[in-house]
Design brief:
By secondary structure, the protein is mostly beta strands. It is built from 3 helices and 16 strands.
């Protein structure tokens, strides 16, 4: 019996061909790794766990007051990316501005990513973490964040008193500093309980002052100095005359408001000039009005941003 021997062909390659293939594979690995680690924030981001949305807040019936509070927020980062914040880094003016509102007020957030990393936005009642984001307050998400230069808008109407927080919802970014506080007071009554004039008159003089670097603004004296932002306290029905002098080098205007961060919440026709027609350096103005409604108010510079930099004082009507 004859046997047929099966001989398989053996293919060999040259060392040069093997080296080329290894170089191609290595190149693909290097490019892939560069892309992966270049988007590290994106890959490590995760949305809040299912069911973590604040059901109580979204389910609560909210009756809007009709008052709107616009706020512009920008994601910013330190050069080494270790410190993150909104609008300005810690120690700088307007860092993580605190918001004051009342139940039913509408807070409108205009968000922009001025950093080089990926970010997302939301409001929560939790004091830490990035879960329990209130429905409707989000701008993008951790799994679909804002890229550098991108922007968005959201709205938030608080349904109950207390403290809320606006944060970056990318994991870890809140802990690095991207959080601000929202203090919500009771819903203000739409009924105004005015009183008759008492016949008593008061005169107050307020001077706009500035620090040498223009980062700190105030009335009468800078923080730490005697006379800084003096509290004004009168009785309901008293007549009040304010004389405001611009002792600084910038432009300023005056008004009594219900919200120190909202120049549009002006009361009693108490304005002296306006942001569009301010007092120039050295100029002064005067206004007289009747404080006919008891409550806690604020006198401020109504030029946008100046109140946040320190130009605000308490105005109490008993």
């Amino acid at each position: 019996m004859s046997h047929t021997e099966h001989i398989e062909s053996i293919f060999r390659t040259s060392p040069e061909r093997t080296a080329k293939m290894m170089a191609i594979v290595l190149g693909i690995c290097i490019v892939g790794a560069a892309i992966f680690f270049g988007m590290w924030d994106y890959w490590t981001s995760a949305p809040p766990a299912a069911g973590k949305m604040s059901k109580a807040e979204s389910a609560t019936s909210i009756v809007p007051t009709g008052k709107e509070i616009p706020l512009s927020l920008a994601f910013v980062e330190s050069s080494d990316f270790r410190t993150l914040a909104f609008n300005a880094l810690p120690g700088e003016s307007n860092n993580n501005p605190e918001i004051h509102a009342n139940v039913g007020d509408k807070i409108i957030f205009d968000i922009v990513n001025n950093g080089k990393s990926f970010h997302a936005f939301g409001v929560t009642k939790d004091e830490e973490g990035f879960g329990s984001i209130i429905s409707g307050s989000e701008v993008k998400s951790a799994s679909n964040p804002l890229k550098p230069g991108e922007s968005g808008q959201s709205q938030f109407i608080p349904s109950e008193e207390g403290s809320y927080y606006y944060i970056c919802t990318v994991p870890g970014h809140r802990e690095q500093g991207m959080q601000g506080k929202i203090i919500v007071g009771p819903k203000q009554s739409t009924e105004t309980k005015t009183v008759q004039p008492t016949g008593v008159s008061h005169n107050f003089e307020l001077n706009f002052v500035e620090s040498s670097d223009f980062r700190t603004l105030a009335f009468n004296a800078l923080p730490g100095e005697e006379g800084n932002n003096p509290e004004i306290r009168v009785k309901a029905g008293d007549a009040v005359t304010i004389k405001a002098t611009n002792g600084g080098k910038s432009f300023h205007a005056f008004g009594v408001v219900t919200n120190p961060e909202d120049p549009n919440s002006l009361v009693w026709n108490s304005a002296i000039n306006s942001a569009s027609n301010p007092l120039k350096p050295g100029e002064f103005g005067e206004v007289t009005f009747t404080a006919d409604t008891p409550g806690a108010y604020y006198y401020i510079c109504t030029v946008p941003g100046h109140s946040i930099q320190g130009m605000q004082g308490k105005f109490t009507v008993e």
